[in-house]
Design goal:
single chain, globular, about 45% helix, Rossmann fold, 17 helices, 16 strands, 2 domains, about 15% strand, alpha/beta
């Protein structure tokens, strides 16, 4: 089975890292990984050191596709309609981008009989139909499926759904996203029959059935646990140690994206020091957040808005050599992130709408040593994160819509006893460790193989 993604193994982000672990461990059965890098389609064979260049993309198509994905589809699927910008030319570029890839893969299938594909995420949604019903596809949709699609946006989403349903399996992170998808099919695609009990959709005139699978992406728990478990003497020699404050800190790790709730978080920090001044100079907030999608107005404006508010909070409350917020735009390796996670007293994850959020899971895995010593940190999590459905009841709930409540929940975390934190973190660790990355892939693959056998 070959894998197709928009980004490749060296791209930032938890999804690329997770897929790279599966790919290099040979879970795709010696298939190839196809992805976009340096404005071209590239392919990597497991065991090879460097990807092979396949074909350059037209820059107009590449840029138009990028804008359509991020200015239109991204806010639409996150139910943040105030950020939606639709451009007809970019809509066509999205289609051309997918057609370009399909043409290359169809040529490949003729040469090598490659007909099994794992395709993931919203940038490639037209591929299943373009490849056709003779190709066998697992498609994973990593971001939310919206619950509110207005009438003017329905035709564009219908086109995407009609293509996705050429897949054998479509995966979502949560029950909610899967139900939202099935509801859309039921209400807007009369040519399809929806079985809500068995989570299947059948295209009547093709007699083709697609299985909808709920499979939250896992992490390699043991790998993160190992990274975070190095002795303190070794941590002191790491370059990341110079960034880590000597006082307790609250950590957030995400892109400066309006879906992540950064602005509300900074507002909450302002309220926190207003309401609990006893923590001035005794606690700091660390925001690891780089700029995302530079050149797109909505994201550039959001980044500037958050940075300005951060400066305002620091100027208002900072004193001596202390400031309430340290915003670090530098990227860190997994080894370095593991140390950030391990030493954080609280991990604050308060997205407005987030497909899953792997940083919350990574933090839990890196709390193994503090948990063993009886003094773990605490995860403060909003229901806007997809992973809330898995672990929310063991975390400290935070309301992404209410910065005052976020401030109060931070205080409650800080006042929580070691015993309660240990009980909660023990449950969290058990939950995350029991639903790992390999289990995620095997769940998708097993459903695919069952359907493949049934169709023979």
């Amino acid at each position: 089975m070959d894998m197709v993604s928009y980004r490749g193994p060296i791209a930032p982000g938890g999804v690329s890292s997770a897929l790279a672990q599966l790919f290099f461990a040979n879970y795709f059965e010696s298939g190839k990984w196809w992805y976009i890098q340096d404005n071209s389609l590239q392919t990597l064979l497991n065991g090879e050191q460097k990807p092979a260049h396949v074909k350059d993309l037209n820059l107009n198509i590449l840029n138009g596709h990028y804008r359509y994905c991020n200015e239109y589809l991204w806010p639409l699927v996150h139910d943040l309609h105030e950020f939606i910008e639709f451009n007809q030319a970019d809509y066509h570029y999205y289609a051309e981008f997918n057609q370009f890839l399909a043409n290359e893969f169809l040529k490949l299938s003729q040469k090598l009989s490659t007909t099994k594909w794992f395709i993931h995420d919203y940038q490639l949604a037209y591929l299943p139909k373009l490849l056709g019903k003779d190709h066998k596809i697992i498609y994973f949709w990593h971001i939310p499926w919206p619950y509110n699609i207005t009438s003017e946006n329905c035709p564009n989403i219908q086109t995407i759904v009609q293509s996705l349903l050429y897949s054998y399996v479509i995966g979502f992170h949560t029950q909610e996203y899967a139900h939202n998808f099935l509801d859309f099919v039921y209400n807007h695609l009369p040519e399809c029959q929806v079985d809500f009990e068995h989570f299947t959709v059948t295209i009547k005139n093709l007699s083709h059935t697609t299985k909808i699978v709920v499979a939250p992406l896992g992490i390699d728990f043991k790998a993160w646990e190992k990274l975070s478990s190095i002795p303190e003497t070794e941590i002191a020699n790491l370059s990341v140690n110079k960034f880590i404050p000597k006082i307790p800190y609250i950590l957030s790790v995400d892109r400066a994206d309006y879906t992540k709730g950064l602005y509300q978080r900074i507002q909450a920090i302002q309220y926190f020091f207003e309401n609990y001044p006893e923590f001035i100079e005794k606690l700091t907030f660390i925001q690891l957040s780089g700029k995302t999608r530079p050149g797109l107005k909505a994201f550039d404006n959001y980044f500037a808005k958050c940075k300005n508010l951060c400066s305002l909070v620091n100027s208002c409350w900072g004193k001596n050599n202390w400031q309430p917020i340290t915003w670090i735009e530098q990227s860190f390796t997994a080894n370095e992130l593991a140390i950030w996670y391990r030493k954080a007293n609280i991990m604050l994850v308060n997205p407005v709408r987030d497909g899953l959020n792997l940083t919350a899971k990574e933090y839990i895995a890196c709390q193994t040593i503090p948990l063993k010593t009886g003094n773990p940190g605490m995860l403060n999590l909003s229901s806007g994160a997809g992973t809330f459905t898995e672990i929310g009841k063991y975390t400290m709930f935070t309301n992404f819509m209410d910065p005052q409540q976020i401030a109060q929940s931070i205080y409650e975390c800080l006042k929580m006893t070691k015993k309660e934190r240990a009980i909660r973190m023990d449950f969290l660790s058990e939950q995350i460790a029991s639903s790992n990355l390999i289990d995620w892939w095997l769940l998708l693959k097993n459903n695919f193989e069952k359907l493949e056998i049934a169709k023979k």
